[in-house]
Every structure is written in C-alpha cells, then in structure tokens.
TrEMBL record:
GO biological process: dUMP biosynthetic process; dUTP catabolic process
Organism: Corynebacterium incognita
Keyword set includes Phosphoprotein: no
Entry superkingdom: Bacteria
Entry keywords, A to Z: Hydrolase, Nucleotide metabolism
E.C. number: 3.6.1.23
Protein name according to UniProt: dUTP diphosphatase
Hydrolase as UniProt keyword: yes
Gene: dut
Stated family: Belongs to the dUTPase family.
InterPro entries with a match to the protein in the record: dUTPase, dUTPase-like, dUTPase-like_sf, dUTPase_trimeric
Length: 130
C-alpha cells in the first residue's frame, strides 16, 4: 500500500514487488503490486526518490511517469541504473514516489495566431547558463 513516510510528505512511497539486479545502464520495468484509481481531474506523477538517485544512481527513465485518472492497471516504475555499480533492489524496498496533483482539464483550442510574448520562440539554452 503506498504510504507517506511523514505526515507532510507530498509523495506516497512505491515499493518494489520483486527483486532485481540492475547493472549500470540497465533498465527494468518494476512492478509495484499497486492498482489504484486516481481521482478525476488529477494525475499521479511517479517521481524518483532522491536518496536512491544520490546513493546508487537509480532513477526513472521517463520521470515523471504519468498515471492517468482513467488507468486502473498496476502501477509500474521504469527504473534505470545511471550509476557506475550494479545495484540489488529487493522486494519491499521504496523505489519511487507517487505525487497526486490536480490537472487542468480544459479543452485544447486551435488558434490562427499566438499573442506575442517577450520570450517568443527562444527555447533550449536561450537564456544562457549564468
């Protein structure tokens, strides 16, 4: 059962449902044994656990993963070992956190022209690094 480690934590801890030995660079779709219904108008975001990432280089390939309100299958976590050493993940270990947030469900509209903004179409790296 997903649970918060502390009362004020945003994320519900998700646990590994099996044991896996992850080599550097290896990915694994980890089952959690959790099936749930996200409330309408909300989304579940599957996020990495900071300690697992910092200590072992374990992250989530598609972070954050999305669990839509209409999905009722098992929540699985697409793990990757970005570290330099192999890591053993055991069943029951906390591997990710699920943050449930409201989402704007207004319909998308097609428009002829976009209003101009100060930023315009400047993207990826356009503001520099300082």
């Amino acid at each position: 059962m997903p649970a918060r480690a502390h009362e004020d934590d945003a994320g519900l801890d998700l646990r590994a449902d099996c044991e896996v030995f992850l080599r550097p660079g290896q990915r694994f779709l980890m089952p959690t044994g959790v099936r749930m219904r996200i409330p309408h108008g909300h989304v579940g975001l599957v996020c990495p656990r900071s300690g697992l990432a910092m200590k072992h280089g374990i992250s989530i390939v598609n972070a954050p993963g999305v669990v839509d309100a209409g999905y009722t299958g098992e929540v699985k976590v697409n793990l990757v070992n970005l570290g330099e050493r192999a890591v053993m993940l055991r069943a029951g270990e906390r591997i990710a956190q699920l943050v449930i947030v409201p989402v704007d469900m207004r319909p998308v509209r097609t428009v002829e022209r976009l209003l101009s903004t100060e930023r315009g179409d400047k993207g990826h790296g356009s503001t520099g690094v300082k």
